Each structure stands twice: as structure tokens, then as C-alpha cells.
Amino acid sequence: MERVLIVNADDFGLSKGQNYGIVEACKNGLVTSTTALVNGTAIDHAALLSRCLPELAVGMHFVLTLGSPLSAMPGLTREGKFGKWIWQMAEEDALPLDEIAGELDRQYHRFVELFGSEPTHIDSHHHVHMIPQIFPLVAEFAKSKGVAMRIDRGLAARYQLDDSGVRSSDGFASEFYGEAISDSLFLQTLDTSAGQGERSLEVMCHPAFVDNTIMGSAYCYPRLAELDVLTSPSLKYAVAERGYRLGTYRDV
């Protein structure tokens, strides 16, 4: 049975080093897809690079925890900036959902302005779209636009989120992350998915070259390790041997 494998690199637009790493992993490796932070400091650079790389599918990385919003969001920001307090607000059921819905729409339209097309799919920075109060907003928005959406099925089941009618991959793997990056870790995620009978799988990744912005990130040098693994010719062969065809969210 042929299976579709989507290797999606998050954080397109975060920095030039991130952008170049994603492009390298697409040109010479397994990355087929990426998702763009439209409020990232290097988003214009990302959009420029994407025009020269049509084989790289580009989706939208909805942002509510980094940088500045594109719309007025006094209920979520502090001193005009996003931050990780969003989870505490969610626990307190204090999220400004109208503001979040407006920002989602603004970021979507900014994506279209930058890239000249609609995104292939929607996911989010730090997985904020899987927060139970936010998930229905993003799911309905994706359905209304006719675009796919990343769904972590484990979280959806835990929070009893209704993902019916939302186009997505059968499986999603976030395990290719951390200090133990290797070929075997990547292949292990594929074998786990195949064992569950999933016909399509997204593997999340963050390949990058280290620059000043990445140096300031809590997740720095493993991005270089990811780039090395994802551009390994032997890994590409092993993926094909397992019956996977590289694809994008256009294939689901």
C-alpha cells in the first residue's frame, strides 16, 4: 500500500538561517512542505525564496505566541507583543476569542498578499490551534477557505475536539524533535504510523542554519542536526523502501 509522507518544516520566515535551512532540506532532502510565520522578521525573504522553489508547498503557521499581531489585540498581548501566557489564559477560560478570530483572518490575508496564493494548509506556532477553545475557530476557518489543517489526533481525542469535515493527513508526528535527532528516530515515526494503518502522515521538522535569531532560540543546534538528517541520501532511500511517496497537503 502506497502511503503519502508530508515532511513539513515549521517557522518559514523566522530568520534567514531558518529560511535557507528549509530551502536546502527541500532542494536536497525530504522536506516537501513548510509553514510561514507571516509576522516573522524574515517573512519577506521567505516569500522571495519560495518564488524560486515552486516544488516547496507553503502553508500558514498561525502565530499567537511570538512577535507582534497584525491587528489590535489588547486582550491577548502585553505591551503589544504575543507571549506564552496564552495557555494560562486558556486554563482560566479568559481567551479573547473574537480578537483571535480577527487575527486569524488578518494573518491569512497577509499570507495571500505575500505569497500570491492561498496556503496549502494551516497549522500554528507552538500548536496553539490545538487549544480547545481555539480549535473550533481555526477548523471552521479552514473549512470555509477549503484548505487543509494539521490535526494532532491524540490531542483532538483527549480534548474531544470535533475534527469532522476538516481535511487533514491521517497522522501527525511531532517526535522528530529534541536532542536525539537521528535517521532511526525519523524512521521510527514512519513505522509507528504504518503500524496504525495510516495512509498519509505529516512529520513536523525545523531544519535551519544557525544565525543570530536561531542562537537566541531555546531550540537551536538540534535544527542543524535535523538539517543533516533530512538531507541524508540513505534516509531518502529508506523512506521509499517503506512504501512512502513524498507529497504535500494537496494530496490529502
From TrEMBL:
The keyword Magnesium applies. It holds the Pfam family YdjC. Pathway: Glycan degradation; chitin degradation. It catalyses: diacetylchitobiose-6'-phosphate + H2O = N'-monoacetylchitobiose-6'-phosphate + acetate; N,N'-diacetylchitobiose + H2O = N-acetyl-beta-D-glucosaminyl-(1->4)-D-glucosamine + acetate. It is found in: Cytoplasm. Keywords: Carbohydrate metabolism, Chitin degradation, Cytoplasm, Hydrolase, Magnesium, Metal-binding, Polysaccharide degradation. Its cofactor is Mg(2+). Mg(2+) binds at residues 61, 125. GO terms for cellular component: cytoplasm. Its main location: cytoplasm. It comes from the Bacteria. GO terms for molecular function: chitin disaccharide deacetylase activity; deacetylase activity; metal ion binding. The keyword Zinc-finger does not apply. InterPro entries: COD_ChbG_bac (IPR022948), Glyco_hydro/deAcase_b/a-brl (IPR011330), YdjC-like (IPR006879). Its EC number is 3.5.1.105. Involved in the degradation of chitin. ChbG is essential for growth on the acetylated chitooligosaccharides chitobiose and chitotriose but is dispensable for growth on cellobiose and chitosan dimer, the deacetylated form of chitobiose. Deacetylation of chitobiose-6-P and chitotriose-6-P is necessary for both the activation of the chb promoter by the regulatory protein ChbR and the hydrolysis of phosphorylated beta-glucosides by the phospho-beta-glucosidase ChbF. Belongs to the YdjC deacetylase family. ChbG subfamily. This is Chitooligosaccharide deacetylase. It comes from Enterobacter lignolyticus (strain SCF1). The lineage of its organism: Bacteria, Pseudomonadati, Pseudomonadota, Gammaproteobacteria, Enterobacterales.
